[in-house]
């Protein structure tokens, strides 16, 4: 992504969405409008949650934010890159450099050590082997998994897997960490630890984190809570209640 | 790009599913293995036959009597040969005179058949041939003690015999071949008992596949052809010979021409009036060509079978790769989310397919080498597969990997990441 298309704007804004629409089955009788004019701005270093019931359109919004999908209509500028101008073949590079995905089901590559899993985004970025291993170790130590680097995913607990996945998401120092129900598959105690890790990354590393969840309690911990319903943003509130208690 | 990682990943994947990997490779293993085995055995056999024929002399020819086709091109296979059909001594004498410059040696052979040779209480089985003087040299039979049957013994129809050192060892365990010369032996054939004097001992060994063609040469016994004719059973023992073997002198430069001219001489001079029989000449070169041609056909047939096996094997690989792509849909989705380009996914799966096929190819080469070695040793002409055939085999299995891996790999590369991540 050398030919990034910079737009003259505030460089502190990581996500800038204006009038985003997403329609499926366009022109067919079963045409479906999932997103109906989303305006969303996320500043650098913000910890924001997007909440909504299932079917509200939050997954579709996440896919567009994560460069897995494109909006049918509207402007989306991600970290200074006008997404409309990015060709399909370059979307993988955008994901690789600007987005760090954390999934509900961890999605570690099976039969591949924790270290190699963390190295993967750097491998796709074309980083050299030595540099990759060095950074992957650092990141695993950051998430307190330094003593499990050689372990296979099958040898790790759920919480440990998610910590490795978070380290992997940080690999290429992305503009956003995009976490989709990261505690959904964990028990509450382990989920708590994972949330604490996000808070720590946000506080200490200044990471921009977008958390997608249907759980209002988790959302309440974040700085901003964006509630989405029926394809529209219905509210944007200040959060941070529980966080203050940590 | 990321080649090493892809190879490690593919091998890890195969290791975690050994049985499936082995079954998938089976088609490739069988295909490559059978080609290597057959080529090894075929090459060893051809090489052995060629070397034997070359030993016999590159400028040797054989003259046979053969059926002459009638005006419709048919031959009567059932008609027995008459006495005048055979090559007579008079014909040979005329031929020798006419081609005296070009003939170094000649041989006729008449088979008496099996018999027992005895000295005192010791016995040995032999197969008795009548030959002319100087015939053994042309057949590459090496007389180590005494002498080849000479003109005096053959013309005078003496009861002289040349036997192998193996037979001497059996009959006279305490005597060397040299000491055995002049010993009298009894020879029993179906017609009766005869007494022979040993005048020569040969030490003749052809190893390998050629031995099975020329018979067990350690048990042959050579006697003057005139004596042999008397020992043969049946009322109609012909005066002449079925075949004549001729070795050319250094004056023979074109052995093919020599064979043709010899054939013409016999046919024009002696067989013009014969309605049923003519002479057919063959040189060693054409025999070798026949032999290698036969081997070539066999190799081709096996190669076709192997190609079908490889095709089936390749389809098996494609099938398992499709299964693998489906099983790993989520993994593919994750990789794409992490920034893998379509090409990276494609390369990953093609490398995996190549690895499966190459491991199959290597196992096939090892299996084929073992079988080929075993087969060629059993046939008596030990050989190894050529380096070229090994490289071609491994290279070909790689090509199968690319060819049959491309479609599944492309399918994986084109998966929609959102769908793939959602796949259960």
What would you note in describing this structure?
- The complex is a heterodimer of chains A (246) and B (424).
- By secondary structure, chain A is an alpha/beta fold.
- Chain A has one domain: P-loop containing nucleotide triphosphate hydrolases (Rossmann fold).
- In chain A, 33% of the residues lie in helices and 26% in strands.
- Chain A contains eight helices and ten strands.
- Chain A has a six-stranded mixed beta sheet with strand order 6-7-8-3-9-10. A four-stranded antiparallel beta sheet of chain A has the order 2-1-4-5, with helices on one face.
- In chain A, strand 1 and strand 2 (32-43) form a beta hairpin.
- By secondary structure, chain B is an alpha+beta fold.
- Chain B folds into two domains: 3-52 and 290-422, no CATH class; 59-283, no CATH class.
- Helix content of chain B is 55%, strand content 18%.
- Chain B has 15 helices and eleven strands.
- In chain B, strand 3 and strand 4 (122-131) form a beta hairpin.
- Chain B is elongated and about 105 Å long.
- The mean pLDDT of chain B is 86.
- Classes of the chains: A alpha/beta (246), B alpha+beta (424).
- Chains A and B meet through helix 2 and helix 3 of A and helix 1, helix 12 and helix 15 of B.
- Chain B: It is a multi-pass membrane protein.
- Chain B: The chain crosses the membrane at residues 21-42, 300-323, 344-366, 386-407.
- Chain B: Belongs to the ABC-4 integral membrane protein family.
- Chain B: GO terms for molecular function: transmembrane transporter activity.
- Chain B: It is found in: Cell membrane.
SSE order and pairing:
The complex is a heterodimer of chains A (246) and B (424).
Chain A (H helix, E strand, L loop, with lengths): L12 E12 L7 E12 L3 E5 L6 H8 L7 E6 L2 E2 L8 H8 E4 L11 H11 L4 H14 L15 H12 L6 E5 L7 H18 L3 E5 L2 H5 L3 E6 L2 E7 L2 H5 L1
Parallel strand pairs in A: 3-8, 3-9, 6-7, 7-8
Antiparallel strand pairs in A: 1-2, 1-4, 4-5, 9-10
Chain B lengths: L2 H13 L2 H39 L3 E8 L21 H10 L4 E5 L1 E11 L2 E10 L3 H4 L4 E4 L4 H5 L4 E5 H7 L5 H4 L3 E6 L2 E11 L6 H6 L5 E5 H7 L11 E6 L6 H15 L7 E7 H44 L1 H9 L4 H37 L8 H27 L3 H6 L2
Parallel strand pairs in B: 4-9, 6-8
Antiparallel strand pairs in B: 1-10, 1-11, 2-10, 3-4, 3-7, 5-8, 7-8
Helix pairs in contact in B: 1-13, 2-11, 2-13, 2-14, 11-13, 11-14, 13-14
């Amino acid at each position: 992504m050398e030919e990034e298309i910079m737009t003259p704007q505030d460089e502190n804004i990581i996500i800038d969405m204006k009038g985003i629409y997403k329609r499926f089955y366009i022109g067919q009788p079963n045409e479906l409008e999932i997103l109906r004019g989303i305006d969303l701005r996320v500043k650098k270093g913000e910890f924001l949650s997007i909440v909504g019931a299932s079917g509200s359109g939050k997954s579709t919004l996440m896919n567009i934010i994560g460069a897995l999908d494109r909006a049918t209509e509207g402007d989306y500028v991600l970290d200074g890159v006008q997404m409309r101008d990015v060709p399909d073949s370059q979307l993988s590079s955008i994901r690789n450099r600007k987005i760090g995905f954390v999934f509900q089901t961890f999605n570690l590559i099976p039969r591949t050590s924790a270290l190699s899993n963390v190295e993967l985004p750097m491998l796709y970025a074309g980083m050299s082997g030595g540099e990759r291993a060095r950074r992957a170790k650092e990141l695993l130590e950051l998430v307190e998994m330094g003593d499990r680097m050689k372990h296979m995913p099958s040898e790790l607990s759920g919480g440990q897997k998610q910590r490795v996945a978070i380290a992997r998401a940080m690999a290429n120092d992305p503009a956003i960490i995009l976490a989709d129900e990261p505690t959904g598959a964990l028990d509450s105690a382990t989920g708590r630890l994972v949330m604490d890790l996000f808070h720590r990354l946000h506080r200490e590393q200044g990471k921009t984190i977008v958390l997608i969840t249907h759980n209002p309690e988790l959302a309440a911990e974040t700085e901003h809570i964006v509630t989405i319903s029926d394809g529209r943003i219905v509210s944007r509130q200040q959060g941070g209640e529980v966080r203050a208690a940590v | 790009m990321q080649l090493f990682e892809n190879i490690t990943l593919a091998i890890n994947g195969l290791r975690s599913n050994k049985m499936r990997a082995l079954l998938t490779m089976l088609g490739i293993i069988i295909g490559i293995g059978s080609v290597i085995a057959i080529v090894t055995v075929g090459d060893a056999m051809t090489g052995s036959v060629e070397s034997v024929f070359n030993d016999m002399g590159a400028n040797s020819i054989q003259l046979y009597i053969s059926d002459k086709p009638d005006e419709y091109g048919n031959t009567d296979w059932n008609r027995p040969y008459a006495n005048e059909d055979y090559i007579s001594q008079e014909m040979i004498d005329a031929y020798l005179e006419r081609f005296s410059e070009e003939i170094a040696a000649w041989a006729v052979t008449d088979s008496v058949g099996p018999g027992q040779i005895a000295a005192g209480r010791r016995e040995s089985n032999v197969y008795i041939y009548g030959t002319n003087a100087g015939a053994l040299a042309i057949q590459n039979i090496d007389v180590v003690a005494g002498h080849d049957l000479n003109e005096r013994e053959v013309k005078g129809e003496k009861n002289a015999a040349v036997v192998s050192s193996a037979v001497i060892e059996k009959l006279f365990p305490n005597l060397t071949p040299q000491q055995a010369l002049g010993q009298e032996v009894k020879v029993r054939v179906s017609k009766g008992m005869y007494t022979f004097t040993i005048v020569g001992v040969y030490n003749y060994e052809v190893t390998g596949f050629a031995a099975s063609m020329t018979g067990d040469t350690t048990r042959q016994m050579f006697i003057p052809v005139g004596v042999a004719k008397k020992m043969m059973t049946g009322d109609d023992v012909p005066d002449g010979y079925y075949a004549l073997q001729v070795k050319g002198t250094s004056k023979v430069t074109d052995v093919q021409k020599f064979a043709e001219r010899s054939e013409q001489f016999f046919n024009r001079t002696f067989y013009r009036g014969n309605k049923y029989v003519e002479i057919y000449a063959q040189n060693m070169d054409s025999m070798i060509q026949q032999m290698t041609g036969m081997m070539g056909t066999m190799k081709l047939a096996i190669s076709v079978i192997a190609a079908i096996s490889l095709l089936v094997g390749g389809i098996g690989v494609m099938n398992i790769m499709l299964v693998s792509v489906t099983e790993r849909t989520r993994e593919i989705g994750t990789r794409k989310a992490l920034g893998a380009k379509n090409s990276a996914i494609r390369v990953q799966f093609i490398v995996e397919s190549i690895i499966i096929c190459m491991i199959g190819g290597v196992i096939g080469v090892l299996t084929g080498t073992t079988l080929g070695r075993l087969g060629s040793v059993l046939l008596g002409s030990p050989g190894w597969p050529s380096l070229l055939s090994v490289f071609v085999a491994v290279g070909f299995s790689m090509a199968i990997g690319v060819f049959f891996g491309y479609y599944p790999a492309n399918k994986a590369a084109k998966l929609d990441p959102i769908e793939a991540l959602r796949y259960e």
